[in-house]
Amino acid sequence: MYQLDKLRVTDLRCSVIVSVLITGAVIPQLACADVEFNDGPLSVEASLEVGGAALSTKGVNFGAGQIDFRDGRNHGDSADWFEAFVKPKLEAKYKVDDDFDVYAVGSVISAYTGGDGDAGGYTRSGDGRTSWEDLYVGVTYREWSLSGGRQSYVVGNGFIIADGHLGMLSDGAYWADPRRAFEETVILKYAGDNGLSGQLFTVSADKYLGHQRLTGLNVDYDFSLGRAGATYVNVSNVDNDTQAVAPKNGMSVYDLRLLSAKVPGLPDLLLDGEYAIQRGKGEGIEFDSDAWYLQAAYNFSQLPFTPQLTYRYAKFSGDSDPLDKKRKSWDPLAKGYMDRGAWVIGDITGNYLLNNSNEVVSMWKVAVPVQSTLSVGAVFYDFDLDEGNYYGTPVGSKDFADETALFANWTPVVNTYLTLSYNFVKPQAAAKEVFGGKNFSAWQFYMTYKF
After folding, report:
1. Which of 233, 288, 316, 447 is geometrically suited to a Cys-Cys bond with 216, CB 3.0 to 4.6 A?
2. CATH of the domain at 261
3. Could you tell me the pTM of the whole model?
4. Domain count along the chain
């Protein structure tokens, strides 16, 4: 009976994966677009985004197995699951005069996880719900805008602030992560035609990020050689459970960055760099951490297909004594996925093993646009620990793991995105000491389409 049930489950998983693949092939054939309505000064736009993912993992947690986040049960070292979401959205704008607009945006997300649940054990089969995503109103006057409610907000390239919602447990779709909006936001924006822009903001993350409130100022300046930015953030209102394990109330964050910097005489080279520190005191804890990265991307414009080679070195400080009253480990705040390797670093390692704290990582990435709609590539990550412990567990080596990814991205028609990747993580001494010696691998398929 056990073998028969296992066979039925396997057949179900295969059927689900095939269904997602078929959906990814069929949906792009639908010639749909946003629905727009205009009546004098009033304009309304409706859209619908759908997405799905199918994943198959082996050697989960280097053989230690998929550990259920809720009850600690071990479900074995393989996990196959699927995720799906749908996001209808409505945007309305009323033009009062040439200088003044009033607008409102609303959207909901329905998400679902099936199969074994994600490899990290953060979701189970059947997890998923429908909830508000965007729900905000605002006004625009010339270069200024003021908005409030539930909305997305990104600073720079998402290194410290990008994702206000950690989709796990009953939310469903942990890996696809369709929910990103912050709660209880007020954002005052300035966007001039002189290259200068900025925001005064206060935003609150969801309960799985401790309801942390981030309040601060961000300034960016676009000029001929790149984009410079500076940010100040104060952290407050962290709930008691989160504060007990990752204290951050009273923390001040200072960030400087230079993005997409051009080098005179080298038009194919782009440089990026960012440096941030966390300082201050709160509730008996002193903060003294830092994070930074340097990145170089070179387009080989004289070669066929114009391949791009990227190297990045990133460091997120750790804490040699996690039990004292001085926190030296970098807190990732509300970083988010922006692109492959940023800022979920490694599709496996970044989702299930490390979280941009006590981490030193070198990344090599090559991407080749073989067609205007198709690119292929590979990424290699070398992960080390900054200090000799893994979330407080002492380890004898800082050498953690190496991850390799092979990927293909396809955009067959406008508003359609599909990606297929194979990811492979080889444990090194630290990971073997904490988990085990098996390789951790994952096949991943993901697609989205916006009607």
Report:
1. 233
2. 2.40.160.100
3. 0.91
4. 1
